[in-house]
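mind reviewing these tokens:
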Amino acid sequence: MAGAYDDRDGFIWMDGKLLPWRDANVHILTHALHYASSVFEGERCYNGKIFLGRKHSERLIFSGNELDMEIPYTVDQIEEAKYAVLKANGLTDAYVRAVAWRGAGEDMGVSSARNPVRMAVACWEWGAYYGDSKFKGARLDISKWKRPSPETIPVHAKAAGLYMICTASKHVAESKGCSDSLFMDYRGYVAEATGANIFFVQDGEVHTPLPDCFLNGLTRQTVIGMLKDRQIKVHERHIDPGEMESFQQCWLTGTAAEVTPVGQIGDYNFEVGALTKDIATDYEKLVRS
């Protein structure tokens, strides 16, 4: 599937119905367009099975609740919708995007309690998120923006508004020839990339930022479990940026990113080492098992 995302053949599930792709539209006064009242999930389907599908659906409902936006569908109904749209588009290996938002209604200020909560599910074929970086190691810029304090915004929701600085940071990174950008948090510790969590290797042990002000990704949790199954010590902790000089390996994790090696962050360089390759290979096997 190619071309602009609003001009394709296929079907999108929207508010309980499968619609032709080009007909899945919203009004210009949709609340989410003006006030970011939107939450979403990104998922991958492998060989006809969505990896951790139910956990994604559960998190979508959680994110909606964090924004005081009760999604009018159960986990079972969301799962049914995802598989219906995969079937309608004839896809067994695909990226799946479920999104819920405050629609147009009686309210058009900050308050939107009287506006309906709407939902849609789309899917499309999507290869490696970072292209050939998955094999040779991605190059990351360091963003000028920081992940905010949990006292300022619902940082554990997968909410559209939280990605504003991600888009800005990734545009700057791409202009420098980088694949992505790394955020520090509001305290100055290493946090995450624009759409992926980060891991480092030092002398056979793994270090990853404590997700106390950003999303604890489902892929992140899966990879930590894989490492512990291998009896590899994992340190979830605050990481000072200067520590990157002593780390030998680095990788990113995320539904879109899967497990992607990192070769460079700013002035810091990393090898695409054996552990990074092994975890990437094992993850690929797991999602297709």
User: Anything to note?
Assistant: The first strand starts at residue 11 and ends at 14. The chain has a mean pLDDT of 96. Residues 63 and 157 are 4 Å apart (CA to CA).
